[in-house]
Amino acid sequence: MSGHSKWATIHRKKDALDQARGKVFQKIAKEIYVAARGTDGNPEHNASLRLVLEKAKAANMPKDNIQKAIDKATGAGGGEDYEEVRYEGYGPSGIAIMVDCLTDNRNRTASLVRSTFTKRGGNLGTDGSVSYMFQRKGLIVCDKTVPEDDVMMTSLDAGADDFQVLDDAYKIITPPEDFLKVKEALEGIGVANFLTSEITFLSNMQQSLSEEDSEKVYGLMEALEELDDVQNVYTNLAD
To answer: Is 193 in a helix, a strand, or coil?
Structure first.
């Protein structure tokens, strides 16, 4: 299995995204808040929170920021009321794009997402128009400090679906339910630098474009990711 994910954009635009770490942390903090809301804030009792905390760890989010988000969600009194909303549509050259949002104002978010698609050469579709192209998967990308055979065998033995060797990293795809098991197994053999570590959506129906057309798609993806309500953007653009 091979699929495009935010890893491609992160790898390609690392310097630019490093400068936007505060915005990334803000988005993750919102996910932590939603996952911890109405609970005791203990990830051992909350699988969803544990997954978000893994994402925060992979993004090098400061522990203080993480704890503040948990405390805010579990504290007394009212708080934000975020709603999960998904938008589906097509980017330049017909590339499928799926956008997951957390919002306290659905009308505002719909307007912003729609106008961003339009301005960048895309258009929104109906519910289900592209989501059938994606599967929920665990995605792990780590550096090559541990030998390839060790990482491959450990990943597959722990339940991974696929192992790929990239130019400067290993890419491992897992079923969502085995994601943490695989990651913990990799940590057990000395893998410490995870470039990406998250539950995401990958596509089996990839589409290749020219460099010029790919740039247009990346431009739309990045414009969407700049929106405060947008949490994740997925596409079937080939790596």
So the answer is: coil
Task: Note the pTM of the prediction, 2 decimals.
Answer: 0.80
Residue 111's CB is within 10 A of a number of other CB atoms, namely 11
User: Consecutive sets of 10 residues in the chain, 239 residues long: mean pLDDT of each?
Assistant: 49 56 86 89 90 88 91 73 92 96 94 97 94 95 95 97 94 95 96 90 93 94 94 92
Q: Among residues 99, 132, 102, 138, which one has the least CA distance to residue 235?
A: 99
Question: Domains in the chain, ordered, with CATH?
Answer: 6-74 (1.10.10.200), 83-132+207-235 (3.30.70.980), 134-203 (3.30.70.980)
Q: Which residues neighbour 43 within 8 Å (Cβ) at sequence distance 6 or greater?
A: 49, 50, 53
Contact 206, 3 (CB under 8 A): yes
Q: How far apart are CA 211 and CA 216, in angstroms?
A: 9
